Amino acid sequence: MSKRKDDQKKRKRSVRSNEMEEGQREITAELDSDIFLNKTFLLYRCTPFYKFEHIKFTQYGKELHNFITGQMLNRIPLVYDNGEENDFISEGKVVELFISKIKLSNWNGTNGMPIGVEIKFKPKGPAKEQIFHLIFLPSIVSRDFAPENSPFNHYPVILIKAPQRLANIAIEWFETRFDCRICRYRLESSHLKKFVEELANISFTCDDFIQTKPFELTFTIPDISEIKNIKLRISLVDIKRLYNRSKEQSDSQQSGIAERIDEHFFECLRIKLSSLILSKISNHAALVAGEGKLQIFAGLLSPTFTVSLLNQLVMFTR
Questions:
Q1: For the chain, does the N or the C end have fewer beta carbons within 10 angstroms?
Q2: Are 240 and 204 in contact (CB under 8 A)?
Q3: 46 DSSP β-pair partners
Q4: pLDDT tens readout for residues 177-223
């Protein structure tokens, strides 16, 4: 009986060792800008990494793979585990994990390119393999406290597309490994208004913008429990008309697109949108929510939209 138990323990250790070693081989795959499209990302903010080196991507990938696998094999209960998602993660395994720079045209950051973590995950049973991502956006301007030979690297914004348990395990590893702090990134109403400007101005450059999906602006009403929000839909043609009207005014009277929309609805409906909280915007190109969500849709101008939106997300953290 004792010998049988010893054999079972050896087999378990062997299985665990084999699973841990699956991610040890060299992975040279690269990521491109398509990684950003047609996914709903949760947004996070991050303090600077300590001693994060690009030449060690392969090593970091192995360490993260082993850490995630170890958490799953040990079935360590976490306070944020919940129901079906917990079962989905605990009963599956990481097939492959690698870290790579992301090829993103026209990214003008002084601190390198965005970095992506790709996790190929196989749930237990007949379910198909799924791919999840963590994307780290570098700071755009040099930080005063970081001289040329500084051990710090700053990636102030993280985009995550993964089940919450898997995301939290990965976050725990990054926080421990690089002595940083990662938390959710909430966007203010003023940030969303800036995104309205960006999305509209880029859309105007498209020849067939008349056919595009209308803008949908969702406003939250503070201190009124009976009405949670108000949704406004306005075509890009009407936004262009308001924009042109603003340009005809003197420089001192000109206002941005978001301000012109506010003024227009007040003139027509006596609704003072500036007193409400802009909580979500969406159109044919993207969806951005104040709770910290981003989705960029594939399209003719998606490369331009992608760079513009990501740049703004980083700039807002300054």
A1: N
A2: yes
A3: 182
A4: 999 999 999 999 999 999 998 888 888 877 666 567 889 999 998 87
Asked if 76 and 178 touch (Cβ cutoff 8 Å), the reply is no
- Non-local (6+) Cβ contacts of 71 within 8 A are 169
Q: Could you identify the residue written with the tokens 């192995």? A: 62
Strand, coil or helix: 171: helix
Q: CB neighbours (10 Å) of residue 312? A: 17
> What does the block give as tokens for 35?
């990684």
Per-residue pLDDT reduced to its tens digit, 40-59? 999 999 999 999 998 999 99
Count of residues making up the chain: 318
Q: Report the alpha-carbon distance of residue 307 to residue 314 in Å, rounded.
A: 11
Asked if 171 and 163 count as a contact pair (C-beta separation under 8 A), the reply is: no
Distance of CA 45 to the CA centre of its chain: 10
- Residue 311 burial (C-beta neighbours within 10 Å; 0-12, 13-18, 19+): middle
Which residue intervals of the chain are DSSP H helices?
2-21, 57-74, 83-90, 164-178, 189-203, 236-247, 257-269, 302-315
**Amino acid of residue 244:** N
